[in-house]
Amino acid sequence: xxxxxxxxxxxxxxxxxxxxxxxxxxxxxxxxxxxxxxxxxxxxxxxxxxxxxxxxxxxxxxxxxxxxxxxxxxxxxxxxxxxxxxxxxxxxxxxxxxxxxxxxxxxxxxxxxxxxxxxxxxxxxxxxxxxxxxxx
Length: 136
Fold this sequence. Notes:
The chain has helices at 29-35, 102-112, 130-133, and strands spanning 14-17, 23-26, 41-44, 66-70, 75-79, 83-85, 88-90, 93-96, 116-119. The chain has 136 residues and is an alpha+beta fold. Strand 6 (83-85) and strand 7 form a beta hairpin. The longest helix is centred in the last third of the chain and has 11 residues, at 102-112.
């Protein structure tokens, strides 16, 4: 028996083997059945989890090297790779801060970048009690 290091079966494919050990590859079971004779064998190649249907692979989104959120100038600066924050595409360079809450901006920036820098104070809503606290 000869061994080979070349891969012969791929996950989520269908293979038809005839009596002479010739193997044909198909994408669907129905295509393999159409080509099969009564003496042929259909092999089903499963993935590592036992799935028959191919799972669409979505590559992970690239992270930005650094995001700087400047609340004083209302500018979000992206370095490295473009990212999406709050449904808004942010290109490399200066962008307007996306029209979502500042908490969502900071949360998304943390997840989509390797480093985050915050300049200024976010627009926190509420009553300013600075003068009231000066009596203490």
